[in-house]
Design brief:
This protein is of the alpha/beta class and 500 residues long. It is built from 17 helices and 11 strands. It has 3 domains: 217 residues, Growth Hormone, Chain: A (Up-down Bundle); 36 residues, Roll (Spermidine Synthase, Chain: A, domain 2); 236 residues, Rossmann fold. It is elongated, with a radius of gyration of 27 Å.
């Protein structure tokens, strides 16, 4: 029997599994350690270098190539399949997480790097060297493409990180088990031990897949020091709703978005300066803010006729409109007939809409990735300015002017470079510390004044002007404008999160 085509299928599976393990490690590390761009770069770079180490080590295996290949495949199944569960066990302890993370990445990369030369040597008598190299590399690169496409679009949303890791561990173990029949003529001695280990791994990983939710919840409860009420992974983010004695909190990709105890300070500060500055706004646009809390505040304001909320993640807006805790917190804002929800990328939607809002509230997550950083670029703000009504106003959350001072002023300067007149302001919050915002219009404007809706817990006529008092330790610093082709903001934010 010609084993060559089937062995090339194994190359495809090996490449797919190996890259999936590293993508999972990079994703988890960006949750725990932050700095997603840096983490992805480091992990993929380490993985590629480990492939080279494995290829170099393969030169020391002279005999029993088929058995060695199957042993290594079982090793990939064991280490790769357990990689994410192991990382979740140390999720809440960065000092332990880092060595486990990089040790796992290097081990998997080395084992995968061992496998490909061994397979090539097994089939070298059946193909010319030219065909052998071209076919192995072709299947290797196709496997990488399969992993890159299916990992974010199917496996993570459908299975989650833990189950995906265990599933690919099972897949590697199945390859090893299959190989004991496929390569049996090339294996001296018995193969019962190999088969029993492969079956044992398949059974153990299947059991762990059934317990995956319990493992994930236990790890996240330790990380957040809270009871997990709801958790899901979407194509865009990991959404976690947690509760402790201080109320409940929403986390996106392990970043706190709000605490029910003090979120009203944030959302009143985001909403009402812009509403007052625009003077009798009728049409309001909210970008981000899928939790519905800024929406709640907008709907309180007299004279509002329509609100369009654009959030990329339909799971987030669905959760905010159906989960009892969130519905109570946002006061059922999504049920208001004046509200239209659009689940689309804000930059794409803004480039296509004919809407001319009187007020735009921007409540995006912090710019910890290039995907988010594009929403704080001069191009985005120029596009926003072209859509805003002539008398309109924009308010945007702008990170902390205390802990991420360069990031904050980078957002301010980028808005100015796009043609906005900008007034920075800030508010103190127990959950976040000092938090920064920017109020902008197309023309010069005075500090907002006017009548606020009744029932506000934080803002009043005396508090409003105090928001715009910027003390010296929060004052301007020299920064670059954030453009789509440089993304200075993401680099500032990453460096400041690291304490640099």
């Amino acid at each position: 029997m010609n084993r060559t085509p089937i062995l090339f299928l194994n190359v495809l599976i090996i490449a797919t599994c190996g890259l999936v393990y590293e993508l999972q490690a990079a994703t988890l590390s960006s949750f725990v350690l932050g700095d997603s761009v840096t983490q992805f770069s480091l992990i993929i770079g380490l993985y590629l270098s480990a492939l080279g180490v494995g290829a170099w080590l393969s030169r020391f295996i002279d005999n029993g190539l088929a058995r060695a290949f199957l042993e290594v495949e079982l090793g990939v199944a064991l280490v790769g399949g357990l990689s994410v569960p192991a990382l979740y066990l140390v999720f809440a302890r960065p000092s332990s997480f880092v060595p486990v993370l990089y040790g796992t990445v290097f081990t998997v990369g080395t084992l995968v790097g061992l496998e490909l030369p061994l397979l090539m040597r097994i089939v070298r008598d059946q193909l010319d060297f030219k065909d052998l190299i071209s076919r192995v590399l072709t299947f290797d690169y196709i496997g990488s493409l399969v992993a890159s496409v299916l990992f974010p679009l199917w496996f993570v949303p459908k299975l989650g990180l833990v189950r995906t890791s265990l599933f690919f561990g099972i897949l590697n173990a199945v390859v090893a088990l299959w190989g004991t029949w496929l390569l049996r003529p090339l294996i001296p001695g018995g193969v019962l031990g190999l088969r029993l280990r492969a079956v044992g791994l398949i059974a153990a990983f299947a059991f762990l897949m059934a317990q995956a939710e319990m493992l994930t919840q236990s790890s996240e409860e330790e990380l957040y020091d809270s009871r997990i009420l709801y958790a899901t992974t979407t194509p865009y983010q990991r959404i976690v709703l947690a509760q402790n004695r201080n109320g409940f909190q929403l986390y996106l990709n392990a970043h706190l978005q709000f605490s029910s105890v003090d979120e009203y300070r944030y959302h009143e500060a985001l909403t009402y300066p812009a509403m007052l500055a625009a003077d009798h706004p009728r049409h309001v646009l909210i970008l981000g803010g899928g939790d519905g809390l800024a929406l709640r505040e907008v709907l309180r304001y007299p004279g509002v006729e329509s609100v369009t909320l654009v959030d990329i993640d339909p799971k987030m807006t669905e959760l905010a409109s159906t989960h009892p805790l969130l519905v109570r917190q946002n006061q059922g804002a999504y049920d208001d007939p004046r509200v239209e929800v659009v689940n689309q990328d804000a930059l794409i939607w803004l480039s296509q809409t004919d809407l001319r809002p009187d007020v735009v509230l921007i409540d995006f997550p912090d710019p910890h990735s290039y995907a988010l950083g594009k929403l704080y670029t001069s191009r985005f703000f120029r596009l926003l300015r072209s859509r805003l009504s002539d008398e309109g106003a924009v308010a945007i959350q702008s990170t902390s002017p205390l802990s991420t001072r360069k990031s904050y002023w980078c957002i301010i300067r980028t808005m100015e470079a796009a043609g906005f007149k900008v007034r920075p302001y800030q508010v103190g919050m127990p959950s976040f510390g000092i938090w920064g915002f920017a109020l902008a219009r197309k023309v010069d404007f005075a500090l907002p004044t006017g009548t606020l809706p009744k029932g506000l817990r934080f803002l009043d006529a005396a508090t409003m002007p105090a928001l715009f008092a910027i003390p010296p330790d929060l004052g301007p610093v020299e920064v670059q404008v954030n453009r789509l082709d440089n993304q200075y903001l993401v680099r500032y934010y990453e460096a400041e999160r690291r304490g640099e």
